[in-house]
Structures are given as structure tokens and as C-alpha cells.
Specification:
Elements (H helix, E strand, L loop, with lengths): L46 H16 L12 E4 L43 E8 L11 E2 L3 E6 L2 E6 L5 E5 L7 E11 L4 E11 L2 E7 L4 E8 L2 E10 L9 E9 L2 E6 L2 E7 L7 E8 L6 E13 L28 E6 L2 E6 L11
Antiparallel strand pairs: 1-6, 2-16, 3-4, 4-5, 5-16, 6-15, 7-12, 7-16, 8-9, 8-15, 9-10, 10-11, 12-13, 13-14, 17-18
């Protein structure tokens, strides 16, 4: 059968369209698309009121890319169209706490950053939200598959369904900025992903910075609905795994983007696709791993006043063993790629060794 919203082929038995993510079984005819989950209007209300309410709901929820950037947040729910990862792990039994923790140290010193970046330099505070006021404007909803709500001064996502994603965004617009937010896995399986979206244009065009309950991070770009890994899922000892809190930071300046967890630098990305946009949050469960709760708190966005930078003409992080560096250095010396580093060893006295690319 075909999706009544976008016309894509949908295998028999599937409840969601693999292209647009919409639910099929509750979909109205293609001539009158509507957002799932709209409550029925009592029959007693006149036909004219029903039509007005339906038009308003379709305009705000079913077409979020038409919402002005200053309006309240909307939501996009996507089953399995987002990148998936790993093998399910056991559900943590210890509840998350927000007590201060020492910054985790990597097992070896971090090498200098290869990508040219400026040190993020927070300027004036542009926006902050502590989620203490439920009327502050962030979107809330309660459905069978998920709930998003203000709870105890935090912005909390509860997802009951496996392989399910929920997105929200704040109706703000930023170009060069430094963003920080506390993100905590409160309960549920460690096989998950959650984090921040930024330079958000609409539900098909944005960047996403993700961490997971099993201690990994990744950076994605979504362009016209197509996902691309800018940084693949990577382990990091800086991430507090399981039911714990993490401090996420994203710094953007022009095409340069820097990413941190718990004040530890993780990655840099250079990309010119989106130079500004909205910011928001997302939470996603994986296959076989439902019933996840994640909370966000103390969001702050500053203007990034770091000086501009110039792109290097050459860089190499030595992660590829075929990077072109000479390894045959002659008698008494040797060179090799070892653990994503390039090592030169001198085996005999009074020998000098060098390598070229």
C-alpha cells in the first residue's frame, strides 16, 4: 500500500511510513492530511468550530516547518528512520542523581586538535531556560507511545515504545553561539541515544549531537531527510554512562563546530550546510529497548565571540594506515601507524629518523 501523506510504498503490516515517519493505521484519506493524536471534538460543538480547530492544529503540528521561529515548540516523532546502534544492554537499577562529579580523565592525554578552531569564547547570554516554569513555552504532550512534560524543574521525555524518537525545538534562532545543557538518563536501558539538535531548519534539515547510555557520542547532519555521519559513534571515557547526568556543550562559529561532554573536548566538525537555526532536544529508544526516561535542565546559549580562524591546507589524525607517510626508513630505524598515531623508533645509537608524506 502507499502512504496517504507522501505516496511512498509501505510494506503490508507496517504502522509507520519509512519515508515521512507518519503513522499509517490512523491516517485519514490523502485529500485531507491530519496530524496523528488530535483528540476528537465533541459532537455538540458546531461544524464550523470543528473546522476552525482542525485547520489550526494541522497548521501548527502537521506542518512544523511553517511555524515562525518565535512560536512555541513543535514535535516530530520518527520510528526507525534515525540511525540505530549496538546490542541491547541491561536496564540500570540505580537512579540518576545530579550531584557534582569530577570530570572523567581519558586513559591517555588527548592529542592537539587537528581541525582549525578557535577556543569558544562566550559573549553575552542570548537565552536561558531552567524549566522551572511550565508555562515558559516548550512543547508538552502525553500519548500512548511517549510523554514530554515539565517535571520537578526539568524537561522530561518518557518513551514507552522501542525504536522510537521524539524531537522538540525552542522557536529561537542562533548563528554563532555556545550552547550548554545538562542531560540525564533518569532510567531505562543503556542502549539509547539523546542529545541536542542545532541550526535546525525543519524536521528534515539540521545537525544533531548525540550521546548514549553506553558511553558513546556521534554527530549527524540531516539534509533533505537524508542522514549522514559527520562523526561516527565513538566510545569516550568522558561520558557518564548509564543513569547519570552529563554536561553537553556545542560551540558554533561559521562553518566550524566544536563538541564537548563534561568539559572534555570530543570532536570538531567543519561543514557549511547550515549557518544558523533553531536549537532543541531529542530522545530515541532502540530496538528491544523501550521504557526510557531522559531529562534536560539548565539550558544556556551565549554568543560566540571567538576570533575567526583559517582552514589548514593539510591535516592528518593518523587514523588511516594508508595515509601516505613513509614507513621504510632504512637500517636502525622504523616507522609505523600504531593506535591511530604515527610512531618513529630509533633502534641503533647515533641514528636519525624522519618520514615524509
Amino acid at each position: 500500500m502507499k502512504c496517504p501523506y507522501c505516496g511512498a510504498e509501505v510494506p503490508e503490516g507496517d504502522l509507520y511510513c519509512g519515508e515521512c515517519g507518519r503513522k499509517i493505521e490512523a491516517a485519514p484519506p490523502a485529500t485531507a492530511p491530519a496530524k496523528k493524536g488530535i483528540p476528537a471534538i465533541p459532537v455538540a460543538i458546531g461544524v464550523g468550530v470543528v473546522l476552525c480547530v482542525c485547520v489550526a492544529i494541522v497548521g501548527v503540528i502537521a506542518i512544523p516547518n511553517l511555524i515562525p521561529k518565535t512560536t512555541a515548540t513543535a514535535v516530530v516523532v520518527l520510528p526507525t528512520s534515525t540511525p540505530t546502534r549496538g546490542v541491547p544492554t541491561a536496564t540500570p537499577t540505580k537512579a540518576a542523581t545530579k550531584t557534582p562529579k569530577p570530570t572523567p580523565s581519558p586513559t591517555k592525554p588527548l592529542p592537539p586538535t587537528a581541525t582549525p578552531t578557535s577556543t569558544p569564547l562566550p559573549g553575552p547570554l542570548l537565552y536561558e531556560e531552567d524549566f522551572g516554569d511550565p508555562s515558559s513555552g516548550w512543547w508538552t504532550s502525553s500519548e500512548a507511545d511517549y510523554e514530554v512534560a515539565y517535571q520537578n524543574g526539568e524537561y522530561v521525555f518518557n518513551i514507552a515504545t522501542e525504536d522510537y524518537s521524539v524531537w522538540t525545538w525552542g522557536g529561537k534562532f542562533f548563528t554563532d553561539f555556545v550552547l550548554e545543557v545538562e542531560a540525564g538518563q533518569v532510567s531505562g536501558p543503556d542502549l539509547n541515544s539523546y542529545g541536542v539538535t542545532f541550526r535546525f531548519q525543519d524536521s528534515d534539515n539540521f545537525y544533531r549531537f548525540s550521546i548514549s547510555g553506553d558511553g558513546q557520542y556521534a554527530i549527524h547532519r540531516v539534509l533533505d531527510g537524508e542522514w549522514e555521519e559527520l562523526v561516527p559513534w565513538t566510545d569516550s571515557p568522558a561520558i557518564n554512562a548509564g543513569a547519570q547526568w552529563n554536561l553537553l556543550r556545542v560551540a558554533c562559529q561559521g562553518s566550524y563546530m566544536n563538541f564537548y561532554v563534561n568539559n572534555v573536548h570530543l570532536a570538531d566538525v567543519t561543514d557549511t550546510t547550515f549557518t544558523g537555526g533553531d536549537v532543541g532536544f531529542y530522545v530515541s529508544t532502540s530496538k528491544g529497548a523501550p521504557n526510557l526516561q531522559v531529562a534536560f535542565d539548565n539550558l544556556q546559549v551565549w554568543r560566540n565571540d571567538a576570533p575567526s580562524v583559517t582552514k589548514f591546507t593539510f591535516e592528518d589524525d593518523f587514523s588511516k594506515e594508508l595515509g601516505g607517510w613513509e614507513t621504510d626508513l632504512g637500517e636502525g630505524r622504523q616507522a609505523a601507524y600504531v593506535d591511530k598515531q604515527f610512531e618513529i623508533s630509533i633502534l641503533d645509537p647515533n641514528i636519525i629518523g624522519w618520514s615524509r608524506v
